[in-house]
Design goal:
2 helices, alpha+beta, 14% helix, 24% strand, 71 residues, elongated, two-stranded antiparallel ribbon, two-stranded antiparallel sheet
Length: 71
């Protein structure tokens, strides 16, 4: 599973690290002004995207015993 990219409704090109954490982009959202909404299911807009590699604790800092055994 760790070799395959994750592509589902909330993750695009995500990966699974050796410690089991899923790494995916994270998004900062803001509520739209009612005049900006195109419908009932359109209340948010993406302000910025943080790449997965920057959004999570580095693997080197992991306290997971599976990772510690490999080092």
């Amino acid at each position: 599973m760790k070799e395959l990219p994750i592509n589902d409704f909330m993750t695009k090109d995500g990966t699974i690290r050796d410690d089991g954490r899923v790494i995916r982009n994270m998004y900062l959202l803001a509520t739209k002004d009612p005049s900006e909404c195109k419908g009932e299911w359109d209340p948010m807009k993406v302000v910025t995207t943080m790449p997965g590699k920057d959004a999570f604790r580095p693997l080197a800092d992991s306290e997971c015993p599976l990772v510690q055994r490999k080092q």
